[in-house]
Amino acid sequence: MEENTSIQAVQAVQAQAAIQPTIQNIVNAGVGAMITSLRANPDDRAASVRVFNAMNNPNDRVSNHINETISVQDYLIEMTEIEDTDAYGNGLGSYSVVPRVVLVAPDGTSYQATSYGIANAVRNVVMVCGDAPWQPPVQLKIKQVPTKRGSMLTVDMVG
Question: What is the pTM of this model?
Answer without folding.
Answer: 0.82
